[in-house]
Amino acid sequence: MSITDHFIEDKVTRIPVKKEGQDVKVDFNELKSGGFIKQRQKDLFTVRLRCPGGRLTTKKLIELARIADKYSKKGVVHLSFRQSLEILYVDYRDFDALVADLRNVGHKVASCGPRVRVPIACGGCEYNPNGLTDTQKMAEMVDEKFFGTSTYHKFKMSFSGCPIDCARTREADLGFQGVVEPAWDEDTCTGCTICSRACKEGAIVSHPETGKPIYDPAKCIYCGDCIRACPTESWKAERYGHFVRVGGKHGRHPREANDAAVFIPDEKVSNVIEKTLEWYKINGKKGERIGTTIDRIGLKSYIEFMKNTFSDATIITGV
Amino acid sequence: MDIKIDKSLDLRNVLCPINFVKTKLALETMEKGQVLEVIIDDGEPIQNVPKSVKEEGHKIVEVKKEDNHFRLKIERR
């Protein structure tokens, strides 16, 4: 993986400090790579844990609760806006011990600063009836592969399992939202009209005499409601995939992401990320989010660059 | 097609998800292969109830539109 190899964290710099008369080593490189956030209170930090997709096993949660209880001077945690568990009021002199305790239970600290952050995700198709893609599995894979990669500014990714978009892919630097393309079989259709009622987008209207669907793909947002509602399985899933959105952000100056492509298959997601980071690296500037780079360079440049990666998907036109 | 029904529920003016819960409870009292008829309103109920019935593994065997409501026949699976 060329792009991640390129960004190796700088050498570890250990600075000895005194705690209760004893020498304790603090790894300030751990601070630099993020996850340790200075609080208002002297010597105290928030420690952000790495919880891709906001999912934890109950066993892990018990371990983390024990660790949080041991190190938080105030006995509190906070659930971050991007699904991570944060231990508040941690004395920086305890960092080494805390990191060692986390390592013992197989847990890692998250990050802040200009790098690829922990991906967020909704529940996805594993247990949510609306879910079309396995967002949790994707978030885990992406975290494994891309977490911590240095970038010009923060780089946040999110995975929504369906067009309801709970994970807000329009606000992510790179967002993936589940979609399904419906296909209709005339022979098994009884003209019951349920699909036209189930469709909230007006993409299906029923023929006034036969009751059979008239489908307008231009209005379809690929949610799969027709497939799920059809009593005779006449609406079926033609293909599943991801809607790709790029350049979104919230904060002081929000920017809605650009729709880039639709029906990217699961196995291409990691290529899309890699290639997008590559385009950002070539075209971006220090301190600039990818959305700003798109505004400066033009979406066309990005789409052009991504063409091969998007080859088995539909590129959203209008560039 | 005239499918014989074993039980009928009029769920007009019953809101989501109570209409589905009542449907589900009725189906649970029935034998496999028996047919439940439910009458549900157009709008939100017809958007949601058939989906949920399918997700529970039952089969909708007939759908009839009547004025502002739908008459569904559901086979217990």
Summarize the structure.
The complex is a heterodimer of chains A (319) and B (77). With 319 residues, chain A is α+β, with helices and mostly antiparallel strands. Chain A is built from ten helices and 14 strands.
Can you offer a commentary on this structure?
The complex is a heterodimer of chains A (319) and B (77). Chain A is α+β, with helices and mostly antiparallel strands and 319 residues long. Chain A has helices at 2-6, 28-32, 58-71, 95-104, 135-146, 194-198, 225-229, 269-283, 290-297, 299-306, and strands spanning 14-19, 22-27, 36-38, 44-48, 77-79, 85-91, 120-121, 157-160, 174-184, 204-206, 213-215, 235-246, 258-264, 314-315. Chain A is 27% helix and 23% strand. Chain A has a 6-stranded mixed β-sheet with strand order 7-8-9-12-13-14. Chain A has a 4-stranded antiparallel β-sheet with strand order 3-4-6-5. Chain A is globular. Mean pLDDT of chain A is 90; it is low at 1-13. By secondary structure, chain B is an alpha+beta fold. Chain B has a single domain (7-75), classed as Translation Initiation Factor IF3 (2-Layer Sandwich). The model of chain B has no long low-confidence stretch (mean pLDDT 93). Classes of the chains: A alpha+beta (319), B alpha+beta (77). The A-B interface holds A 129, 190, 192-194, 197-198, 200, 211, 225, 228-229, 231 and B 42-43, 46-47, 50-52, 54-55, 59-61, 63, 65, 70, 72.
